[in-house]
Predict the structure.
Amino acid sequence: MTKQKKLTINNNIRTLRFFADEMTQQQLAEKAGVSRQTIIAVEAGKYAPSLELAFRIANVFGAEIGEVFACENNCGIA
């Protein structure tokens, strides 16, 4: 059995916030139904959001989930 390495998930939240009339982290948090601290952690890449939260964040921006989140090196998928 091969040990799986931790996935690196990148995001474009900061850029999307900028282009959404410079939306604040607090505004995004309120629209996504989470705390500002959660948005800070997700945006900094220190916390991987649940699938539900990832979709809620994407929905706030009217974007597809793949426009907000990406896995480095295709997440090791061949």
